[in-house]
Structure formats: structure tokens, C-alpha cells
Design goal:
Number of helices: 4
Radius of gyration: 32 Å
Shape: elongated
Strand order of the largest sheet: 16-18-17-15-19
Structural class: alpha+beta
Largest sheet: 5 strands, mixed
Order of helices and strands: HHEEEEEEEEEEEHEHEEEEEEEE
Number of strands: 20
Length: 401
């Protein structure tokens, strides 16, 4: 009988139980592929989560803006350091309405009370909303670059304007070129016709400021509380510049922190500088030198606003107007949509209107008033009694682009 034997081969067992180098490499490659897929998926999920958070934050902000408008009659025009909404009414800021962001994103707000644009940048992703649209991917509008001596004015849906540039100072004659500089006296004794010509060559794309642009600018400065003596829009008077005939001439300008430069005063309504909602400063929009705009009462077709019983011999307070006329742009304080503006008079520093409701002869628009106009002067001052070819020692202009 043959005794069975047990066969044993250690080398064969080792080879059977282990992995070859090729197998290990395949496993490593598979793990790498799975890891890459996981990372990409995570990043995609994270980006979508961030996008959803931004949209949710802006959707919530849109509701806050609408509630703010119900309470205050207008949209907010800015944010304080705590992201609380600020505007043209008291209290400002209104701490009942403060914006939140899920990942501490950065908000940017611009607005004029009737419109707004809110942008939220968070984790390298940017969305924006407006009063009528959004959330929309990307920044709302590119930054507007203005020529030297010009400032940016936020556009207004009320007057159909987009952001535009305007001279910070009244036009000065520098070698025959209309220039916005602090030094020197304003360019005067110029007709509307020549102002249009000079404005067109002041810079590429430049033109004499239009009525829509003037009213956009007027509404903007009227909506800034610090421009009012009472510190609240509609409280006291808005500053109306050098208009008391002391001294009896136009003035040069100075630094922005010296708004009473040349007036001999340090307080009161003769302040020559006004602030815009974007923080810019404009000089002599009221007083100093009256300014042509491009507005005209078209010959034979456009009637002037006014008071039934009055013609050119009288200045009119805006609340007394009972003939609307047919001007293309609403010139009245009420037309701005600002709360209470329909009752504002020259006592509030806005200026007055001189017109002839029955006349349809071609006349140009003169704005702001001059150094001797007193209570007539103001950002809504409007004289419709001079033809486009007329001139005067207190008639100047301002250029926009």
C-alpha cells in the first residue's frame, strides 16, 4: 500500500494570493478617476449652492426694497455700514430693512428713489437685481468713465436717462474750448446757439446738457438729505448758490469743502455745492451764472406752462401753475416723484418759473439762475423768455456726455 503524500508549494501559494504591479497600477488609476469625479462633482454642487444662495439673498432683498417703498414712498438710495437701507426720508437708515448675505458677500447699491440697481458679489460670483428685473448674472453696468473735470450722474427712469457725465463746474473758456475747471470765471455772454456748438466740440460725444439730463440731475440732488438745511429732504430749503447780488458778479470756485467760497458767508442758503446720491459734488447748479440747456419751445407748436392770468411780467411758484403746456420733459417738482415735492416753492430753495402760456415762439431754456436772482434762483429755476440767439453777461452753459 502506497502512503499518500501531501503536496506543498509555497511559491505557488504566494503568487496566487498577491497582486501584480499591473493590477496595483490599475487600482490606483481607478481610485484617481473616482477621486477626480468626486472633486468635480463637489465643486459643481458647491458652485450651484453658492449661486442658489446669491439668488435667494437678492430675491429677499427685492422684497425688502418693495416693503421699504411702501413705508417711505420711494426706493432706498444707499446702504449704511450694516447693510441697512438708506434713502431720502427719516429715519435713514431704516434699521427694519437690513440686507443679509449667506457667505458675507459684498453688496453695491445705486438708485435715485424711483429706480435701483443692487449687485451682490460672493465667492467670485456676481449677480444683480433692479426694480424691474433679476436676479441676473454679472455686474449690472460697466463703470462709466468721464473726461477730466466731469462727474457721473446716475440715470433716471423718470426722465428716460442712463448714467451720464456732466461738467462739475460751469463751462470755462480755456483757449476757446469749453472746459470744466475750478479756476477762472464762467464763460458768459454766449447764446444757446453758440453754446450748442461749443459743447459739441468740448470732447468726444459731448453736447449741451439736455432738459432730461438737467431734470435727472435736479431730482438727484433734491433727493439727498445733506443738501437741505433741515437735514431731511423737503425740510427747510435746498441750498441755492450765490444769488444775493453780494458781490454783484460771478465767482470762481474753490475746494469742495469750501462751498461758500467767495460769498462772504459760512452758513445759509448761499452754499454753492450740492451732493449727488453717488457722493459726487457739483458746483453752481443754482446761482452764480444762469445756464442754457438744449431745451427749446418749438416755434408754433409747443405751448409754455404757466398761470392763466400771468405772462412774462411775473415769476411763478410751481404749485400755482394751472396750464401744463406741452413741453417734452416734465419741469415741475411734482414730476420728480419725490415725496411732498408738489408743494415745494421758492421758500424751499427750488427756484421759480417765468413763462408766457400763450406764446409759441421759439425760446431756449435757461436754468439755475444767476448771482442777482435771489429767491427766483434754484435747481428748478427756469426762464423761457429769451430766444436761442440771445446773450447776456450772466448767461453761461454746462456740457454733458
Amino acid at each position: 500500500m502506497v502512503k499518500p503524500t501531501l503536496s506543498s508549494n509555497k511559491n505557488n501559494q504566494t503568487n496566487t494570493l498577491g497582486f501584480t504591479i499591473v493590477e496595483l497600477l490599475i487600482v490606483i488609476v481607478i481610485i484617481g478617476i473616482l477621486a477626480a469625479i468626486t472633486i468635480v462633482s463637489y465643486r459643481g454642487i458647491s458652485a450651484k449652492a453658492n449661486e442658489s444662495a446669491i439668488k435667494a439673498d437678492l430675491a429677499n432683498a427685492k422684497k425688502q426694497f418693495e416693503l421699504y417703498k411702501v413705508d417711505h414712498g420711494s426706493y432706498p438710495t444707499g446702504l449704511d455700514t450694516n447693510k441697512c437701507l438708506t434713502g431720502t426720508t427719516n429715519p435713514s437708515p431704516d434699521t427694519r430693512y437690513c440686507l443679509k448675505s449667506s457667505n458675507n458677500g459684498a453688496y453695491t447699491l445705486t438708485g435715485d428713489g424711483n429706480t435701483y440697481t443692487l449687485t451682490l458679489n460672493q465667492s467670485s460670483l456676481t449677480y444683480n437685481i433692479t426694480e424691474s428685473a433679476g436676479p441676473t448674472l454679472g455686474a449690472a453696468t460697466p463703470t462709466l468713465t468721464c473726461p477730466t473735470g466731469y462727474i457721473v450722474v446716475p440715470g433716471s427712469s423718470t426722465y428716460g436717462t442712463s448714467d451720464f457725465c456732466v461738467m462739475k463746474y460751469e463751462a470755462k473758456n480755456v483757449g476757446g474750448v469749453a472746459t470744466s475747471v475750478a479756476a477762472g470765471m464762467p464763460w458768459v455772454s454766449i447764446s444757446q446757439t453758440d453754446s450748442i456748438t461749443k459743447a459739441a466740440v468740448a470732447c468726444t460725444g459731448c453736447h449741451l446738457i439736455t432738459e432730461a439730463e438737467w431734470m435727472t440731475l435736479a431730482k438727484n440732488v433734491l433727493s439727498v438729505p445733506s443738501n437741505w438745511s433741515g437735514g431731511v429732504v423737503g425740510s427747510g430749503y435746498i441750498y441755492s448758490g450765490h444769488n444775493d447780488n453780494t458781490p454783484e458778479n460771478a465767482l470762481a470756485t474753490s475746494t469742495d469743502d469750501d462751498g461758500y467760497s467767495g460769498t462772504g458767508q459760512t452758513a445759509g442758503n448761499q452754499k454753492r455745492t450740492l451732493k449727488l446720491t453717488n457722493g459726487e459734488t457739483i458746483w453752481d447748479m443754482a446761482g452764480n451764472v444762469a445756464e442754457w440747456t438744449a431745451g427749446q419751445t418749438a416755434d408754433g407748436t409747443v405751448s409754455q406752462p404757466g398761470v392763466t392770468s400771468k405772462a412774462y411780467s411775473s415769476w411763478n411758484e410751481y404749485p400755482t401753475l394751472d396750464v401744463a403746456g406741452s413741453l417734452a420733459v416734465n419741469i415741475t417738482p411734482a414730476g420728480t416723484g419725490l415725496s411732498g415735492a408738489g408743494s415745494w416753492t421758492s421758500t424751499n430753495g427750488i427756484g421759480q418759473l417765468i413763462s408766457n402760456r400763450t406764446e409759441k415762439v421759439l425760446h431756449g431754456f435757461i436754468r439755475g439762475g444767476c448771482w442777482g436772482d435771489g429767491a427766483h434762483a434754484g435747481v428748478l429755476y427756469l426762464a423761457l423768455d429769451i430766444v436761442p440767439s440771445g446773450t447776456g453777461p450772466a448767461l453761461g452753459f454746462r456740457v454733458a456726455r
